[in-house]
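hey so i finally got around to running the thing on that chain from the lab meeting. sorry it took forever, my laptop kept dying and i had to restart like 3 times. anyway pasting the input first so we r on the same page abt which one it is
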Amino acid sequence: MIHIVFNESEVSLMQQVMELDASMSGEVVLVRDDFAVGPLQNTDTEEGWQARLNWWREISRNSPYGEEGVGRFDDRETVKQLKEKLDENPAEELWIWMGQNQHDVMGYYWLMPRFRDYQGRVMVLYLNNLPFINEKGHIFYPSWLHEIQPKEFTKARKLARPVTLSEFEIDPDEWRKIAEENALVRILEGGKKIAGKEESFYDSEILKNCTGEWQKATRVLSNTLNRMKIKTGDLFLMWRMKQLIAEGKIEITGDLDKGWKDFDVKLSGAVQTIPAPAEEETKEA
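ok and heres what got predicted. didnt touch it at all, straight out
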């Protein structure tokens, strides 16, 4: 079996799982792109794919990853190699692991049109609304695979099921619909339902973690990542922080054109003086 995951930390996680359960032994393959953000229109063409790469390069400027880090992988090549392995070995199966988050679900949608010809050999494990035991022995409902203890995956593997013929017909259409909508942000609203949002969707999370005192931009970024309920990546958040600076909602000291650690931020005076909206009273039906 070939295990497909969508987050780098899950590669080592799956390797730990295989050490505990030899029946799950196999290759672990990572789909790297985050299809929950950024342009998707015409990404089935070379021109559209390059437009997406250019967007990633733009928001990666002056980041710790560097602009060139964006081009160090090509998920299309990963798919090509997977198809070759399936063709070479008729007994081989793909196991797609998804947590209940838009990043994993969007990765799944991207894969569906590409493996339609392998129906019956593509398994999916969608761990949505399922209880697991955490390190303290308490029941919780994970959103991400890395939140689950390796030993708990023995229970999770029993949920593996083939992607149905119906799903191979419907889900590629869902991918096309999402791509044509081309919202810059996509969130999961439950099940596999993806909703497009405006690019400013996470701005309130960033502003919530800014104060009237100077802080390192990286501290605001870290606090935002840790506290936000609907997660996204650090590259996208830092790009939005820079947009908020350009809009005058956040003040800056230092050099924005250097690295992330080279400038401090605080709320602008205008933002600090805006009164908080009053909470609406709950009306009885």
